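Researcher: We're teaching a course module on how sequence relates to structure. For the next exercise, students receive a sequence and then see the predicted structure as tokens, so they can try to spot secondary structure elements on their own. Here is the exercise chain.
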Amino acid sequence: MRYRIEKPLLLPLLLVLGLGLSPLVGTAQSDYSSWTNAQLQEASEAGNVVAMSYLADSFSKQEDFASATAWYRRAAEAGDAYSQTALGRIFRDGLGMAPNIEEAVYWYKRAAQNGDNVAKNDLAFLYLTGDGIDQNQAEAMRLFEEAAEAGYYMAQFNLGYIWAYGKGVPIDYEAAAMRFRQAAEQGYPSAQVELGDLYNNGLGVPQDYGQAINLYRLAADQGSYLGQNNLGFMYERGQGVEADITEALRLYRLAAAQGSVAAQANIGALYFSGNGVPQSDAEALKWFQLAAENGGALAQNNLGYLYENGRGVEKNIETAIYYYRLAAAQGNEAAISNLRALADAGQGG
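Model: And here is the predicted structure for the students to work with:
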């Protein structure tokens, strides 16, 4: 049975439309957030560009994307960068329409030219992944760098991720740590977790379990399942903190309730081993099953082991092979070894 510290699998795909976008560029200081839709509508029809963007936000939150698009477009055509970015996202995600990357790129570029850092980050992400446009690593890096240098935390995080995982560039943990730190200091939980991982493993920074724990805790306290799982792992292993299985299990359960596959597998492993909890193959089976159904390769392998050996469930070699194969298809070495052992014993695999 093996444990793991969970990492984000992909670059976070930006933020939700209408929530957390960059401040409006070049707009008046009036507070429109308390205005009713009727007031916003009247001001918008009178040509107030800021009111148009607020009205569009209101429609987007109601999932009336046709009305939102119409008002974002009017504000965007008047030069409002916030609305240009919002239009880019509507066309990118196909909200209320079929996705149209070409149109999304057009509006992102206009917003980026107007200095909108969210648009630069979104556009950079498209160039990085080649999602609907020609992949262009150099342009992606240029845009990420511009937005990061302007202080936009998502661009800082994305650069950190690129350097940490070698996404089109040689791995550079020092550069990754610098960018993750910038985003972490702005309170971004995923950056706190990633920087914590670097401290945990001594990559690009001196190994420091205490720093790792502090960063994981900051993320966990914000409800990050990644932070909760990783902090639980530290308590379970007693790394940088006195071992406390009760606290580890509490944190794992918080993360598992949010769908963390790693936390679900870690709970299963605690019950399988009886480490700090009553040993229970039935409980282990339940948690491994849940994690396996959510695609966890470690849990799939462990579930196969339970079926192979009749632990907490009736022995069933065919079912064991099924789960081993699922895990092996994801590159899980233990599952590959287990399949080979079954094949050598003449039991398939």
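Model: If you want an answer key for the exercise: The radius of gyration is 24 Å. The mean pLDDT is 90.
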